[in-house]
Amino acid sequence: IQYFNQVIKIKPYLADPYMYRAIAKIQLGDYQGALTDADEAIERNPFVPQAFYVRGFALRKLGKFAEAAKDFSKALEFSPDNLNLLLIRMDALERMEDYQGALADLDKYMKMSPKVHILQYEKGRLQLAMKDTLAAEKSFNRFIELDSTNSVGWSARALLRMQKNDLEAAYADYSKAIKLNSTYSGDYINRGIINVQRNRFREALSDYDYAIK
In which band, very low, low, confident or very high, does the pLDDT at 161 lie, cut at 50, 70 and 90? Predict the structure, then answer.
């Protein structure tokens, strides 16, 4: 930061020192300071996509998700194939509860990176937020088909089935997630709940012990 201060003192008309100082401030958790510097960088050169990304990042950290999404959109105008920008805008939109917009970004990301299978789980999670349980289950099923060794898919589908009161299917999915060494305590807690409802108290206690651990 002190090096950038010196450059700014000598050449205050340059945009880059403000942008890089903003990045340094983000690393220190000074998001308000980063926001001020990003504003200065954009004022000097409004055609640098990274400056909009940096300002959007700071805004997102400050909880200003709508403004952050606008900056990420501006950065995407300059760099439309930037997956990182797409992903972070999706996160901002989701935090605004604009699930439809987030899903549109996710679909675009999936087309550009079809081998990133975890995105099927993210799609199902967004569909659940939109209360589209049928589409969510379809997405979780697809994720399990693509990556059956990832406990997250089994866990997500188990919760969905538990909410639908399909307890035997939920139990089977939780058991599969746990067999795959799930580290999510909720898998053990929920299987324990099903065990209690089935009068399998010893198994329930074992599940709760693991959850506490």
Answer: very high
Cβ neighbors of 199 (< 8 A, separation 6 or more) are none
Closest to 141 measured CA to CA, from 156, 126, 129, 131:
156
CA 174 to chain centre: 23
SS3 content of the chain, % helix, strand, coil (to 5): 80, 0, 20
Q: Among candidates 87, 1, 23, which has minimal Cα distance to 75?
A: 87
pLDDT per position as a tens digit, 106-144:
999 999 999 999 999 999 999 999 999 999 999 999 999
Query: Could you tell me if 153 and 180 are in contact, meaning their C-beta atoms sit under 8 angstroms apart?
Result: no
Task: In whole angstroms, give the CA distance from residue 69 to residue 75.
Answer: 10
Here the tokens at position 65 are 């998700």
| Contact (CB, 8 A) for 81 and 112 | yes
By CB atoms closer than 10 A (0-12, 13-18, 19+), residue 196 is: middle
Cα–Cα distance measured from residue 92 to residue 102, given in angstroms and rounded to the nearest whole number: 8
pLDDT in tens, 82-102: 999 999 999 999 999 999 999
Per the structure block, which two tokens stand in for 25?
């401030």
53 and 42 Cβ atoms separated by less than 8 Å? no
CB 187 within 8 A of CB 167: no
Q: Would you tell me how many other CB atoms lie within 10 Å of the CB of residue 3?
A: 11
Give me the pLDDT at residue 38, please: 98
